[in-house]
Amino acid sequence: MLIDLVQLRTFVAVAEEQHLTRAAERLHVSQSAASAHVRAVEESLGTQLFIRTNRSLELTRAGQLLLGKAKALLNEATLFTSFAREIHGKIEGHLVLGSTSDPASSRIGEVIAALRAAHPLITVDLRARPSFGAQEGLKTGELDVGLLLGRPTNAAFRYYQLTTIPFRVAGPAAWKQKIESASWAELAALPWICPTDSSLAYSTILRQLFDERGLELNAVARFDNATLGRAMLEAGVGLMLMREEHVRQGLEQGVLVTSPIAHAEFPLLMAHVTSRLNDPLVCAFLAAARQVWPDMAVTPSHGTSQG
């Protein structure tokens, strides 16, 4: 039996997530379908790829050896499709984009509108992904382009900086006096609403603000979506890190206050795998992005290639 690319992509996603349900959610397929894909790959190869532990799926030695080859094959399949488009002489096809859950900052709607105006034969699938998830999707070929908050750390990606996003530490309006007068240590000791995922940009910024000062946050609640975090803040649960545009809205509504000392900026980046630099679809999307972000600039990676 031949292994198809869908099955191979499922194998890679399960290997990276180490969890069948999370991989299925990431690929937008049912858990039973994802399980069937993995079984099909194992049966075709005649080898076991995963060992089930208490709470996760771990790669066997054979699975570890095949993972890198699978990623490379998926990337080559994408390049093959790109060359076929060039031969055909038309810029048409389907783009899958991953974007943070805050489209106002990235202006992704305007970019897609510009793309569609210039290339009506290109269709787009836009998926909400946290920054870490966008990078994982680029690695496996699930995403063609990703928009993310963070530093350019993967040498296998080509990054473009769109802008910088300012962040502030905010808390309930009722805490005005103690927040505005608090030192770094006093801020850390107050109740906090923190991200559930340590890989989120919010977590990285908080580490830079507090860990580097030797301070540990008093986390009393957690969120995996910033909108949910803001709802808890407004209800008086605790402090959280917020984008400045949301802080301004909260200040105008009188529902929050901010610390005068705790603020930071993080770059908003667009990225694709470097091997797709000449892909007609990716080039068309970058041209549309430059219409919306005329100062968009390539920014070098500060990390090493990651498989």
List its salient traits.
alpha/beta; 11 strands; 46% helix; Arc Repressor Mutant, subunit A; single chain; globular; D-Maltodextrin-Binding Protein, domain 2; 307 residues
What does this structure look like?
46% of the residues lie in helices and 25% in strands. The protein is of the alpha/beta class and 307 residues long. Strands 3, 4, 5, 6, 9, 10 and 11 form a seven-stranded mixed beta sheet that branches. Strands 1-2 form a two-stranded antiparallel ribbon. The longest helix is centred in the first third of the chain and has 28 residues, at 61-88.
What is the structure about, briefly put?
This protein is an alpha/beta fold and 307 residues long. It is built from 13 helices and eleven strands. Helices cover 46% and strands 25% of the residues.
Tally of individual helices: 13
**Coarse shape:** globular
- Counted up, domains total 3
What pattern of helices and strands is seen along the backbone?
A: HHHEEHEHHEHEEHHEHEHEHEHE
CATH class descriptor of the largest domain? Alpha Beta
> Which parts are unreliable, with pLDDT below 50 for 5 consecutive residues or more?
none
* CATH architecture name of the largest domain: 3-Layer(aba) Sandwich
Looking at CATH, the homologous superfamily of the largest domain is Periplasmic binding protein-like II
Can you give the helix content as a percent range?
40-55%
Q: Major β-sheet, in short?
A: 7 strands, mixed
C-alpha end-to-end distance: 27 Å
The CATH topology of the largest domain is what? D-Maltodextrin-Binding Protein, domain 2
Estimated radius of gyration: 22 Å
Classify the beta-strand content into a percent band.
25-35%
Total number of beta strands: 11
Structural class: alpha/beta
What value does the average pLDDT take? 87
